[in-house]
Amino acid sequence: MKTGTYLALLIHNHVRLVDVLPPKELDLIKAVSTQLAALGRQIRMFDMPNKLAEPTASELRDLLVCVRYEVESAREASAAVVRRNLMSWEAGRA
Question: What DSSP assignment string belongs to 1-37?
Answer without folding.
Answer: --HHHHHHHHHHHHHHT-----HHHHHHHHHHHHHHH
